[in-house]
Design goal:
Elements: H1 2-19, H2 21-30, E1 39-43, E2 46-49, E3 54-60, E4 63-71, E5 77-83, E6 86-94, E7 100-106, E8 109-117, E9 123-129, E10 132-140, E11 146-152, E12 155-165, E13 168-175, E14 178-186, E15 192-198, E16 201-209, E17 215-221, E18 224-233, E19 236-243, E20 246-254, E21 260-266, E22 269-273
Antiparallel strand pairs: 1-2, 2-3, 3-4, 4-5, 5-6, 6-7, 7-8, 8-9, 9-10, 10-11, 11-12, 12-13, 13-14, 14-15, 15-16, 16-17, 17-18, 18-19, 19-20, 20-21, 21-22
InterPro entries: MORN
Keywords: Repeat
Protein name: MORN repeat protein
């Protein structure tokens, strides 16, 4: 179970790392220092910039305003609305590697609704603010893992759903791009966990259920049962202490008839009954 949590955390981090491409691609291609972008030549509707970029389109008092197209020496280009010498309104930016942003702009930055296709397979559609995903959006990476939910300044934060494949997903709260807060994770084998999360791992109080009827209810720490908890299986029940995913210390065992006995457990196995050391039959948690 701990391995699943680490894998989920790593997959979530991979998704966060890929989404960072969005901001850098847009910034590198569209923003120009106004001190070096003054036109050196004007012929009808064309401007040649000192940076080597060429603009063709509407001009108002010698500056870009209206509809236009600007091409950079590396082949990147922007086509769409300009206002006061900046991309502003709706437009398409295509960089030299083939990444595409198609959407709304404000003062040379992606702001409003837009769609982004990265050359390496990342796709995002949703709200933007100053070149970063901000608001409600949908992101799909090259492995077809999908996140739908809230973003804050380019990071998954708030409430959302992360789908790793058709049968494995997490739905709940995110912080700094990781599962954090309260949420439910469902695995391919129909096992599920509903409860508290911290930095991508089950941490706090939660309930874990298996398709065959087993369930654990209690405390978790770093992805494993840790603290006080109850485990039920095949009509039997254990209530007591856990350490790193195993029963450890004193606990109470209930049989199928509801009879109870207090015992001592170590590494998930009962080593003795309290006041009855002669018996050493083990009761394994089989989680």
């Amino acid at each position: 179970m701990g391995v699943c949590s680490v894998v989920c955390q790593q997959q979530t981090k991979n998704i966060v790392n890929e989404s960072a491409i969005v901001t850098e691609t847009i910034k590198q291609a569209i923003q120009e220092d106004t001190s070096t972008s003054r036109p050196t030549q004007q012929q009808d509707r064309q401007l040649h910039m000192e940076t080597g970029a060429i603009y063709e389109g509407d001009l108002v008092n010698g500056i870009r305003s209206g509809k236009g197209r600007q091409v950079w020496p590396d082949g990147s280009y922007y086509e769409g609305d300009f206002l006061n010498d900046m991309a502003d309104g709706k437009g398409i930016l295509v960089n030299a590697e083939g990444s595409v942003y198609d959407g709304e702009w404000l003062e040379d930055k992606a702001s409003g609704f837009g769609k982004y296709h990265s050359h390496d397979g990342l796709y995002y559609e949703g709200q933007w603010l100053e070149d970063k995903q901000h608001g409600i959006g949908k992101e799909i990476n090259s492995r077809n893992e999908c996140y739908e939910g809230e973003f804050v300044r380019g990071v998954k934060q708030g409430v959302g759903k992360l789908t790793l494949n058709a049968e494995e997903f997490y739905e709940g709260e995110f912080q700094n791009g990781m599962m954090h807060g309260k949420g439910t994770y469902t695995w391919k084998n129909k096992k599920s966990y509903t409860g508290e999360w911290k930095e991508g791992q089950m941490d706090g109080f939660g309930i874990m259920k298996w398709e065959d009827g087993r369930y654990y209810e209690g405390n978790f720490q770093k992805g494993k049962q840790h603290g006080e908890g109850t485990f039920v299986w095949k009509g039997k029940k254990y209530v007591g202490a856990w350490i790193n995913g195993y029963q450890e210390g004193e606990g109470t065992y209930y049989d199928k008839q509801g009879q109870s006995r207090v015992g001592i457990w170590k590494n998930g196995k009962r080593v003795e009954w309290v006041n009855d050391i002669s018996s050493s039959n083990s009761i394994e948690q089989t989680i």
